[in-house]
């Protein structure tokens, strides 16, 4: 096990008291795995890896048990993965009830029944969750341009159809948008729930703790805030920092390319994957990217220059290498980083509800 470096700067007695208080309404949550933590957390300010808590959590005034839970996850105080609880209530008006009806529909959509692996719809749904959420900027928000983030605008304002950066997401966006409309669910939540569902539908994928209650977009998001496969590492780090996502979270998040295939990076080799096992949520991607210069990759694979650049950046090398054979560490970090991504630009986190128990169960084995 790598050395654990958990740097707690000035501890706020107030916040620590809140984080450790026993709330009878909080579900039983297992302790966060004490894996390899190179992340600096300041409990006094809620700043993790140099980044404040998102949206209306930033002032550390937690008014609901759910918002406290989210803060606990983001500050590594509890795990970012759900256990084995399944939704079990007859209350048709429970905020999670309709999501239990969506789950079998998404399983049908995302799973290859022959191989039991996840399929092209699942890859697209994970990417769609990112592209819907990733369109918000702290710098723009400071200038009162607050649109964007996880708000459903990918569907609601036709961004999947009209923006080049979203090429390939047209079909999944239409399916998810219409499903949300049919069940009268928030389109913004649908993209994030579907991304979480697709992730756990991939064998070995984590059952990420998943929250709903996002308002829908009332206007399009700002353009040009998503990364390109030709971006160097510093450009990507800055771009994500401006969304409220730190560089170590970025390293965990790009691991989603574990299940990815490209069509537009090298158009002469369509459908080539970014690792050797694109139907499985494993860490092959990290090793395959590192080895893409020294070992000839299979004809089915293409490494993105942007991923290569991150893998070689001096301040990320240790994290990248650390994930090569550490599935448990990666999926926990991915789940936490994805929670942050799924909340980008959301300003009513205090009112959100946890519906992790509406997701399928994690699969640690497959044929
Ligand atoms: C950090 C910078 C990132 C860059 C530069 C990037 C770039 C790309 C590119 C160019 C593609 C291929 C699109 C195509 O040719 O069809 C792709 C696919 C994909 N990306 Fe990313 N990405 C990034 C981060 C992320 C993140 C944070 C996630 C999710 C958490 C993600 C999930 C995916 C998935 C699942 C696919 C496969 C889509 C499919 O096969 O249909 N990416 N990405």
TrEMBL record:
Annotated EC: 1.11.1.-
Name the domain of life this protein comes from: Eukaryota
Every copy of the Plant heme peroxidase family profile domain together lies at 93-259
Q: Which residues does heme b bind? A: 257
Transmembrane regions listed in the UniProt entry: none
Principal EC category: oxidoreductase
| Residues forming the catalytic site | 131 (proton acceptor)
Annotated site (Transition state stabilizer)? 127
List, in alphabetical order, the GO biological process terms annotated in this UniProt record: cellular response to oxidative stress; hydrogen peroxide catabolic process; response to reactive oxygen species
Q: Signal peptide position in this chain?
A: 1-20
Which SUPFAM superfamilies does the UniProt entry name for this protein?
Answer: Heme-dependent peroxidases (SSF48113)
Cofactor binding: number and manner: Binds 2 calcium ions per subunit.
Protein name per its UniProtKB record: Peroxidase
Q: Which organism is it from?
A: Glarea lozoyensis (strain ATCC 20868 / MF5171)
Q: What is the lineage of its organism?
A: Eukaryota, Fungi, Dikarya, Ascomycota, Pezizomycotina
């Amino acid at each position: 096990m790598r050395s654990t470096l958990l740097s707690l700067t000035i501890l706020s007695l107030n916040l620590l008291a809140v984080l450790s208080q026993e709330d009878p309404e909080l579900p039983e949550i297992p302790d966060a795995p004490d894996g390899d933590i190179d992340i600096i957390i300041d409990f006094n300010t809620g700043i993790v890896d140099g980044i404040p808590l998102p949206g209306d959590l930033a002032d550390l005034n937690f008014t609901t048990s759910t918002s406290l839970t989210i803060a606990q996850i983001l500050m590594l105080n509890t795990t970012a993965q759900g256990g084995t609880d399944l939704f079990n209530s007859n209350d048709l008006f429970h905020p999670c009830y309709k999501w239990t009806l969506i789950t079998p529909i998404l399983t049908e959509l995302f799973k290859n029944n022959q191989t039991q692996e996840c399929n092209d719809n699942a890859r697209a749904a994970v990417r769609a969750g990112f592209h819907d959420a990733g369109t918000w900027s702290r710098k723009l928000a400071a200038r009162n341009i607050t649109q964007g983030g996880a708000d459903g605008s990918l569907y609601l304002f036709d961004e999947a159809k009209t923006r080049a950066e979203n090429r390939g997401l047209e079909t999944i966006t239409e399916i998810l948008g219409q499903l949300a409309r049919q069940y009268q669910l928030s389109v913004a939540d649908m993209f994030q729930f579907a991304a979480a569902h697709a992730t756990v539908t991939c064998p070995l994928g984590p059952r990420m703790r998943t929250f709903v209650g996002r308002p829908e977009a009332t206007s399009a998001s700002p353009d040009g805030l998503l990364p390109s496969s030709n971006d160097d590492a510093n450009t990507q780090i800055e771009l994500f920092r401006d969304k409220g996502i730190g560089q170590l979270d970025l390293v965990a998040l790009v691991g989603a390319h574990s299940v990815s295939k490209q069509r537009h990076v090298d158009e002469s080799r369509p459908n080539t994957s970014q690792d050797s096992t694109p139907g499985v949520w494993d860490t092959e991607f990290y090793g395959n990217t590192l080895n893409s210069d020294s070992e000839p990759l299979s004809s089915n694979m293409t490494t993105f220059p942007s991923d290569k650049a991150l893998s070689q950046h001096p301040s990320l090398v240790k994290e990248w290498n650390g994930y090569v054979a550490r599935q448990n560490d990666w999926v926990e970090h991915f789940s936490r980083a994805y929670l942050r991504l799924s909340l980008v630009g959301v300003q009513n986190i205090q009112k959100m509800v946890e519906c992790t128990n509406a997701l399928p169960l994690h699969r640690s084995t497959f044929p």
